Amino acid sequence: MKPLGMFPRFALRPATVLAVLAFAGLAAFAACDGPQAAPLEAIAGTDGSLQHASHGKGASLGREVSVWLAELRATTAPFHRLDAARAAGWNEQITGCLELPGTGGMGYHYGNIGLIDGTPEALAPELLVYAPQRNGRLQLVAVEYIVPFDAWTDVDPPSLHGIDFHRNEDFGLWVLHAWIWKHNPTGIFMDWNPTVSCPGA
Distance (Å, rounded) from C-alpha 163 to C-alpha 157? Predict the structure, then answer.
């Protein structure tokens, strides 16, 4: 595993943390009362197979991916409360609330630095993604897998269960989102979700 110093974009300086807290407000970091997401069937086809917009409208990804995402939901269910996620290792705020005007949002990314080792694991995402709610609380909506460019030497991109990561040039990462706790109309593995927005954006 690479030490934290090898990932300068992810290292949080104290001044940065204070600035984020001042901007977002302490209320935004309160834990959710519990899951407020659609059931798995709401993001799946009637046969239980999940859909992905980049495979064409209505194109099935198959049972293997459906099983993986169901297991991923079970694994991350305890982390609807942000304090539980922090206690389990996802205790680094990687980003503020991310939104791309006209496209959608992501939310806040919390990372488990110990997992950023260049080897994606299907049930151990490096990042948990929380969207802000109107009451100021954060809702777990997605996970994100990341692999630093310099940690991946294979000619093919990283992948999980046949789903390829894609490049994020801004952060120097291979990335893959999975919107397992909130429906994403554009596709479960797409980066931006048009139903997510950031306060003040």
Answer: 10
Instruction: Tell me the C-alpha distance between 1 and 25, whole Å.
Output: 34
Convert the pLDDT of each residue in 51-76 to its tens digit: 444 433 344 668 899 999 999 999 99
Q: Which stretch of DSSP H or E encloses residue 15?
A: helix 14-24
Q: Nearest-CA neighbor of 95 among 9, 156, 35, 36?
A: 9
**Angstrom distances, CA of residue 132 to CA of 44, 93, 108, 198:** 24, 14, 8, 7
Which residues pair with residue 105 across a beta bridge? 99, 193
Structure tokens given for 37: 């997401």
> Coil, helix or strand for 66?
helix
Q: pTM (2 decimals)?
A: 0.74
